[in-house]
Each structure stands twice: as C-alpha cells, then as structure tokens.
Design brief:
By secondary structure, the chain is an alpha+beta fold. The protein contains 29 helices and 17 strands. The termini are far apart.
C-alpha cells in the first residue's frame, strides 16, 4: 500500500484483517445513507427543543451507536473515514461533534472552554486529544477512561431513547462483553457513576453487561449497580452488591472502599479498617485515621470481658455481644458528622458540590463543608440514602442538627476536657460545647462563627460544635453582625469570608475623610525673617520656625499640616493631596516670591515599604520612662475625649450616651471587648500603645474598670 491510500480494518474470528479499499461512492452506500439520515433526524429533534441561541450539534459517538442499534448491519462493509462521509453528505464535523454546514463552532468552543484558534479536527485529530487531556486532568483519570466512559454513556442514552435498544444490545454478539472490557479500564466506571447512573436505562444496561461478562469483568458493572442502588435509597442492596463485587474480584478497590464505608456507617470500625487496608489506602488517609480512632474505643461493659455473655449464648462476653456493642451516642456524634462530611466528597455528589471543591483556603473550605451539608441539603440526603445502615439514635440526632442555624459566638471560658463555654452575640444564649478538634487554641473573648447542635449525651442541654466553625478577628465583628442580621444564606456568608480573607490594607483616611497621601513640598523663600512674620499671622506657631494649620472639627482641634522653616528652605508636611494644595496656596499668598524646589507624595503602603519622605528626626537623649510617661498622658487625654465622641459603631451616639441607653449599651460593651481582645493579641512590645479598655470602663462607670 502507498501513503495516502485508504485501508479497511475488519475483525473476523478474533483476527484483524487489513486490506486496501478501492474508491467508494461513500454517500451512495446504503449504510452511510442510513447514518446520515440518523444525524439529520437527531439534529432536527435537538433543533426543535427551542435552544435557538446555539446551532444544534451532536457527539459523533452517539449518532453512530444510534444508527448501529437501528440497523445492526450498518458499516459491516468498509467505508471512507467518518469525517469524509459526513462532509460529503453536506454536514460538518468539529472535534468530536457533528452538525449542519455553516454551524458556528466558535460558540461551541466557548461553551466547552476550548481555544477558538484551534483548527477543526476529525476523530483522530490533535484537537480531540487536547480535549480528552483536559477532561482527564479535571477528573484525575487516564485519557482512555474518558473515551471509554463516553462510549458507555452513549449506549446508556441510546437505551433510554429506544425501548428496543436494550434488547438489541443484549442480543448483539460481543457488545456487552466489549462494554464490560471498557468498564474495566481504571476510571471509566467512576466517570459513568458521575454522569450516567441517574438515567432510567442505566441499571438495565449494567445488568445486561454484568450477566454477559465473565470472571473479574463482572466486578465493575456490579459495583455500578451498587452505586445505582445507593442513589435510589437502598443502601442494604448496595452493600450486598459491593460485597458481591469484592467476592468476584478481591482486589477491586472501588468496591472495597464502599464496603468499608458501609461497615463504618454501621458503626463497625474494625471491619471498615480491615477493608480499607485491603484496598491499599495510604496510612495517613483521613478515612483510615478516623476508623482506627474509633476501632480503639470500647463501650462500657455491663459485665466483665471474660464473664458469660448476658444474651445466654454460653460464650464469653468478649467473644459474643461485645463485638456488636455500640458506643454511647455521645461518643458517636462526632464520628457521625465526619461520616456525613466524607460522604459529600464522593463522586456521586460531584454535581452538587463541584463549585465548592475549589476552596483551597482553610477557612473557606471548612465553611464550604457546612454549605454542602446544610444549605445544599446533603446531610438530609445522606440520612435518606444511608439511614438504613445507621443506628436509629444517630438518625434522630442528625435530624435535630438540621434545625440548627450558624451564628456568631463569643468564648467565655475554656475548660479541661476540650469543653468551651460560648455566648451567642445574637440571642445572649450560653452553651457549654464539646469541640470537634483540639488543635486550634481558644481564649477568652475569641469569636467563632459556628453551628452549635446537640451532642447526643444524656446530660440536659449537651451541645457540640458542628461543621463550619471559624475563628474570627474581632475587628471584623461589626461587619459580620450586620450581614447576619439580614438573614443571609450559607453561600452568602461564604462569599463574605472569601472577601474578608483577601490580604489587603483597609482604606486609610484622615479625620476629614480624605484619602491618606503622605505629602512633602519644599520651597525656597527670598527672606526667611519676613516669611516667619507673615506665617505667624496665619498659622499657630508651635515652636521657633515651626507652624501648624489647626481647625476645629466637632469641638476638637485637628492639625491639618505643618510648615517648617530651616534657613531659606520652607517645608510643608501633611497627609492628603487636598491639604497639600491648601497649604501651598496659603504659603504662596503669605510669602511672596517663593520658588518650588520639590514635591513628594506617597501612599501608606509605599511609605511602609520605603520609609518616611522627610529626613529622620535627630535622636534625643531622653530616658525611656520619660517617653512612656508622655505617651501615657497623651493617651489618657485621648481616652477622655473618646468617651464623648460620636461613633458610627454606636449609631452616632457617644460612649457616655450609650451607657444610659439599654438598647445600645450591648454594642458599647462589645466594642470594649474588641479592645480587650486586640490588646491580648498584641505582642509584648506593642501592648499599651492603644486605649486602655479598663480605663475607658472606669471613665464610663462600667464594671471592669480600674479600682
């Protein structure tokens, strides 16, 4: 054969035959015409659905299989490549799609997330290889798995469209066996589970494949039948099918993992551990660590381990009912929540949580788990689909969790045994809770955005922290409280935390609301003595050669800027562009003939990165205790003014007015608690630099002040 000639491949009696093909009038071939008719019919049906924004197109695999089901003899004779056949019939192919001539494939590329600049390709083109690579990377499987899953999915769709199709598949020699071989490719069954098990014809086809397959080939379709049983709410049938798949192929990992999950839901941690180890799961995998933790726990025995079992079997208690004895519900409560959370991450739930899985920040990933369980209803669905395996008291406890709402809680006390006393900032309710994890230390006045629910203990009011627990910086408390007052959804709270987690400096403004811009301008003055006399008339002279522009805002003096005269150089220093322009006009008006030497302006971020604009002040030989005394006096004066300042955080009232208002007073107490908490978080060298909350309470006559 020569390069460029067509070759026909045929399979006869297990042998592949290759032979040259003479010129074929492709479109005149009866089988090809049948294929083209199927494409036209299917495109017309898609067009009739009303999706007129997008030109209709179909997967090539789907239409070929549809034609083969309707005409089993189709393509038994060699024909030209599909792309050429369909093009010759007036159709167009693009990547793995077929459509009518003139289809705008750019729209399809945009929807599928593919590059517009790529050239069209046939079934063996480089574009399809690139597409397969993208899908394979998304799901962490081999490209062969994507191709195999597409084939199985197409057959399931065809069986759902035509009542006779399933029977055709059953009677077609070799097709069920071929599908079983496709399902054996690693990753194929997992993809079919995600995208195809919800279709009505899936179980019928998989049963046909399992019946026709032999040996270990039966394991994948049997496992998929187990997943289908689980999705329709029959976990007992799913468990039996998983164990059947393991019996068929003891090394079939997916079935071992799901059989371990069934054992764990039953509360049998030791059996779950044994199945996970057989599956080859890594020793540090969260699921294995979890079951090993609970496998070590033993319920309190009513009789000794070696005593006769109370059931009357005649065997020792440790060899009989001890193996089946359940832990107290309180000891299983956290385990139950962890099992439900793990269930939300399984492939069957992918379409429910796909846009939550990308969370890579520790805070937002924890909140995403809470959104999946409660806002998207997966905890309730877990109980519906797995409840038959759970203990009745576990189902009852989890249903009580469904009635909980997350909120903002303040830590009052941390006790031994991982117990924490919390106070709701919304209702004032006090709760003694058990923490799920002891890793992150908590202290008094820490804030938690948390969901609090019953812990299953017999003690009245026993509570535990459920999913979505996040420690919050108290500076963010007012904003989050305002959001929670509006009754947001869990996803709206998640969006808020995404924004709050972004590392950025807050917008900085001066007392008059102008954006901070550290500014210095220098001028040459013709006569320094005259300049001093004229500046004295317009500004406050702070010291020899230094002047302040001072105004009164809300009854208190505000310094807008400083003018310093050093020889014949006059320097203006202020903190906004507007103030600099005003001071420059003042200087030019007061001192005739000045000449600008330089002007420098920096944002706060630039100043922190590069240091101050003006020359550093000379070092003063002042004792540290004297400096501390001056700072103490300045801060005390500031605190005395603060208690009579109107604050937006207090609804425009002053702290002193708020003390007398029983409605607003809790907001003032929360604000003072914020000051306490921030002071406690400061390092040893930073403490004492802000206002003293105890001194503020003393000024306001509140408990906790200095005595």
């Amino acid at each position: 054969m020569k390069a460029g000639e067509l070759a026909a491949l045929s399979v006869r009696d297990g042998t592949v035959e290759v032979e040259p093909v003479a010129g074929v009038e492709a479109v005149q071939d009866l089988g090809v015409r049948r294929l083209v008719a199927v494409v036209e019919r299917e495109l017309t049906e898609v067009d009739a659905t009303g999706h007129d924004r997008l030109a209709p197109a179909l997967p090539l695999t789907q239409v070929v299989l549809q034609a083969m089901v309707e005409a089993p003899g189709l393509q038994r004779r060699p024909t030209a490549p599909l792309g050429e056949l369909l093009t010759g019939a007036g159709l167009e192919t693009h990547r793995w799609l077929v459509g009518r001539a003139g289809t705008d494939w750019g729209e399809w590329d945009e929807i599928l997330g593919l590059d517009d600049e790529d050239d069209d390709a046939d079934l063996d083109g480089e574009d399809e290889a690139g597409m397969l690579a993208q899908v394979a990377e998304l799901f962490g499987v081999d490209e062969r798995a994507v191709e195999g899953a597409a084939m199985v999915t197409a057959v399931i769709e065809l069986c759902g469209q035509s009542p006779e199709a399933l029977q055709e598949v059953r009677s077609s020699p070799g097709l069920p066996q071929g599908l079983a071989q496709a399902l054996e490719v690693p990753g194929v069954a997992a993809l079919v589970q995600v995208f195809s098990l919800g279709q009505p014809a899936a179980e019928g086809l998989l049963s046909a494949v399992a019946d026709a397959a032999g040996g270990s080939l039966q394991a994948p379709p049997t496992w998929l039948l187990a997943r289908a049983a689980e999705q329709r709410g029959d976990p007992l049938a799913a468990e039996a099918l998983d164990l059947r798949a393991v019996e068929i192929d003891p090394d079939f990992v997916p079935a071992l993992l799901d059989a371990a999950r069934a054992a764990e839901d039953r509360g049998d941690a030791r059996t779950a551990r044994e199945r996970l180890l057989r599956a080859g799961i890594e020793r540090d995998a969260p699921q294995l660590r979890r079951v090993e933790q609970y496998a070590r726990l033993r319920p309190a025995a009513a009789v000794g381990r070696n005593a006769p079992c109370p059931c009357g079997s005649g065997r020792k208690y440790k060899q009989c009912c001890l193996q089946r004895a359940a832990l107290p519900l309180r000891d299983r409560a956290v385990w139950l929540l962890e099992r439900a959370t793990h269930w939300t991450t399984l492939p069957a739930q992918y379409l429910h949580v796909a846009n939550l899985l990308a969370e890579d920040d520790e805070v937002t990933s924890v909140l995403a788990e809470d959104v999946a369980l409660f806002d998207r209803g997966l905890l309730e669905r877990y109980l519906e689909l797995r409840g038959a395996l759970l203990q009745p008291d576990e189902v009852e406890l989890a249903r009580r969790w469904l009635d909980t709402e997350p909120g903002l809680w303040e830590v009052g006390q941390v006790s031994a045994g991982n117990r924490v006393r919390l106070r709701s900032l919304t209702t004032g309710e006090v709760a003694e809770v058990t923490r799920r994890s002891p890793e992150a230390p908590l202290g008094r006045l820490d804030l938690l955005y948390a969901r609090v629910g019953p812990d299953g203990s017999e003690r009245e009011g026993g509570r535990m922290l459920l999913g979505g627990t996040v420690k919050l910086h108290r500076a963010l408390r007012p904003q989050l409280q305002q959001l929670l007052e509006r009754g947001p959804t869990g996803e709206q709270v998640l969006d808020w935390f995404r924004e709050a987690a972004q590392p950025r400096l807050p917008a900085m403004v001066n007392f008059e609301g102008e954006p901070i811009l550290l500014s210095v301008a220098r001028f040459r003055v013709p006569d320094p003595a005259v300049a001093v006399e004229r500046l004295r008339k317009r500004m406050v002279e702070e010291s020899e050669g230094e002047f302040l522009e001072t105004v009164e805002v809300d009854g208190r003096p505000i310094h807008r800027g400083r003018v310093r005269l050093d020889g014949d150089v006059l320097e203006i220093e202020t903190n906004s562009a507007k103030r600099l322009r005003r001071l420059e006009r003042l200087v030019r008006t007061a001192v005739q003939g000045v000449r600008l030497l330089s002007r420098e302006q920096r944002t706060p971020e630039e100043a922190m990165a590069n240091g101050p604009i003006s020359d550093p002040a000379p070092s003063l030989d002042v004792p540290p205790e004297e400096i501390a005394g001056v700072l103490e006096a300045v801060m005390a004066e500031h605190e005395e003014r603060w208690v009579d300042e109107r604050l937006p955080a207090l609804g425009g009232l002053t702290p002193r007015q708020t003390v007398a208002d029983p409605v607003r007073r809790p907001a003032l107490e929360a604000l003072l608690d914020d000051f306490d908490w921030i002071e406690a978080q400061a390092g040893p060298h930073d403490r004492g630099r802000g206002m003293d909350p105890a001194r503020l309470r003393e000024l306001l006559g509140l408990p906790g002040g200095r005595r």
